[in-house]
Amino acid sequence: MRAMEHLKRLEEELLTGNLEAVDLENLRALLGEAAARNFQALKQVMLVLVNAGYLAQREGRMRLSPRGVRKIGQLALRDIYQGLLRDRPGGHQTDHRGAIELRPEESKRYEHGDPLALDLVATLKRALTRRPGTPLDLHPGDFVVYGSAQTTTSSTVLLLDMSWSMSWEGRFAAAKKVALAMESLIRARYPRDYFAIVGFFTRAVELKLRDLPEASWNMGDPFTNLQDGLRLAADLLARHPSNNQHIIVITDGQPTAYFLRGRLYCEWPLSFGGISMRAAQETLREVERVTRRGIVINTFMLDDSPSLRAFVERMTRINKGRALYTRPDRLGEYLLVDYMAKKRKRV
User: Fold this and answer.
1) CA–CA separation, 103 vs 261, rounded Å?
2) 282 and 228 in one domain?
3) Are 142 and 195 found together in one domain?
4) What pLDDT sits at residue 149?
5) pTM metric for this prediction
6) What average pLDDT does range 175-191 have in this prediction?
């Protein structure tokens, strides 16, 4: 009995993340010498992470610092990019035009209408090749300019399904990894863009970046309230107006919860694999409201059930966005390629 009490206390000490509070001799007596050695190695790793600024004490527990969260996002982004380099999936071009992004690694002969971003070294080389010596004889045909791309600023909200079924087949872990990677990508390459994350289960909540690594699918609120997620996402986008507003939905099931006149309703599907009729109707009404505000909804389905496909097809008919079924292990590749393709048009 006493041993069980010691084990319980040891578990509580370990869960706080405060390893200094753990009684090493007690751990050795309960779990053996190998466990004690592993614990000491873990303490050394924790110390390295704290000194590097990746961990910090918060609310009595050791938690990831903002720097640690960003590092995870960078690593997630790197993993996804490595997959892209191996598989080279295609992308989609956009017709939206915006600010010019210079590409110093590429240059071309100047043509009328090009931005006059001169590649001075290449321009002088062409002029001197044509006519060596001084004075320099510079003609318009000698001009070489840097290549450029048109980029657009955009506002995007990622809608992350946190219902119970997302715990299956690694779906939620894959979706969370994508959210961290997208935040890292946008902060590094498109800092003028607005990006937010909304989690939806029986209701919807905004997820701050610092909370994302510890976020999990919600067993206590197992329903899927996509309607509330769309409403919250549209409200966030209204505070950050842009000509390019997008909601990205990652989900594995059709809706089973909704609000009506301020009251929350939950309903199970009529049959296994079936549909919750009223929840679907109210969600589609929210899709119509979002569409009237000029917001594009793109949906990534992590399940290919007929009921989900049928519901998402109805969404896309209303909104004219796109829908794609993908496996959890390919979700990141599709999403990042899609986002970056919308950002740029070659000139």
Assistant:
1) 52
2) yes
3) no
4) 53
5) 0.62
6) 75
| Average pLDDT score over the chain | 72
Residue with tokens 């549909």: 275
Q: Is 80 part of a structural domain of the chain?
A: no
Indicate the DSSP class of residue 165. G
20 and 145 in a single domain? The answer is no
Q: How far apart are CA 308 and CA 224, in angstroms?
A: 12
Q: Where does the pLDDT of residue 204 fall: very low under 50, low under 70, confident under 90, or very high at 90 and above?
A: very high
Do residue 50 and residue 187 come from a single domain? no
Please write the tens of the pLDDT for every residue from 292-318: 999 988 887 777 777 777 888 888 889
Q: How confident is the model at residue 62 (pLDDT cuts 50, 70, 90)?
A: low
Helix axes 277-292, 226-238, angle to 10 degrees: 10
Domain interval for residue 122: 102-150
Report d(CA 328, CA 301) in Å as an integer: 9
Q: How far apart are CA 255 and CA 233, in angstroms?
A: 16
- Domain co-membership, 55 together with 159: no
Within this chain, do residues 178 and 320 fall inside the same structural domain, yes or no?
yes
State the CATH number of the domain containing residue 278: 3.40.50.410
- Are 271 and 131 members of one domain? no
Q: Compute the average pLDDT of residues 214-234.
A: 84
309 and 226 co-located in one domain: yes
Q: Computed from CA positions of residues 205, 206, 210, 216, in that sequence, does the dihedral angle turn out positive or negative?
A: positive
Q: How far is residue 32 from each of residues 2, 84, 272, 308, 310, measured CA to CA in Å? A: 17, 45, 48, 51, 56
Give the span between the Cα atoms of 18 and 27, in whole angstroms.
Answer: 14
The encoded tokens of residue 147 equal 């290549």
Domain count of the fold of the chain: 3
pLDDT higher than threshold 70 for residue 34: yes
- Reference 196, options 136, 254, 154; nearest CA is 154
